[in-house]
Amino acid sequence: MNEVIKNMLERRSIRKFKPEQISRKDLDIILEAGLYAPCAGGRQGVIIVACQNRAINAELGKINHSFFHGRMSTAAAYISKEQPSIADDPKITDGLYGAPTVITLFGARNFLYATPDCSVAAENIMLAAHSLGIGSCMIMRTEDTFDSDFGKRLQKTWGIDESYQAKAFVILGYSATEPPKTKPRKENRVKVVE
To answer: For a Cys-Cys bond, which of 61, 80, 106, 122 suits 96, CB 3.0-4.6 Å?
Structure first.
């Protein structure tokens, strides 16, 4: 099978990480993949910040968790049994799951395609990470997290203009458990019209 397609089919969201930090060499490769993501009009407007500071990441995770107001999972409706989310396990208090590397994707606040551009960059980042044996997961509530006092100060410290808004997190690290198994694809989700 084509290696690119194989990588897409095998990547899974990881929410349990070893404490070991990923290498700068691997991080640079992953970030470059994010920079090459498709973007509206070829504007290249996404700003990517990779944070490997554990204290900052822990505070972001705590704030991110505080904005989770979703319904908790049930036995029949859940996010993941193999890699529980904060909706699945109320004992998880870090919305970024203790990941050693947290990537924040920023898009222009008033640009119509900022969120899709950041989402495509996130996918490139996650696929690149998987190809290097690094686990990843896309996390939302990013706008709320950076609307907090801590988030506003951090954005300023990082030199990201207020005209940009945090749109998505991608967490990275080495998986502490086996990745979830591939689930069979649900039927009747694709239509081809000729």
So the answer is: 61
Neighbouring C-alpha atoms within 13 Å toward the C-beta of 43: 15
CATH of the domain at 61: 3.40.109.10
Which pLDDT belongs to residue 47? 98
Asked if residue 186 belongs to a domain, the reply is no
Burial class (CB in 10 A: 0-12, 13-18, 19+), 183: exposed
Contact 91, 13 (CB under 8 A): no
Token pair listed for 112: 């119509």
- Residue 121 in any domain: the answer is yes
Number of domains in the chain: 1
32 belongs to a structural domain: yes
pLDDT for 44 beyond 90: yes
Residue 118 domain boundaries: 14-69+78-173
67 by Cβ neighbours in 10 Å (0-12 / 13-18 / 19+) ranks as middle
Across the chain, mean pLDDT equals 95
Q: Is residue 147 part of a domain?
A: yes
Q: Is the pTM of this model over 0.85?
A: yes
Q: In whole angstroms, how far apart are CA 108 and each of 19, 72, 86?
A: 33, 32, 29
Diameter of the chain measured on Cα atoms: 54
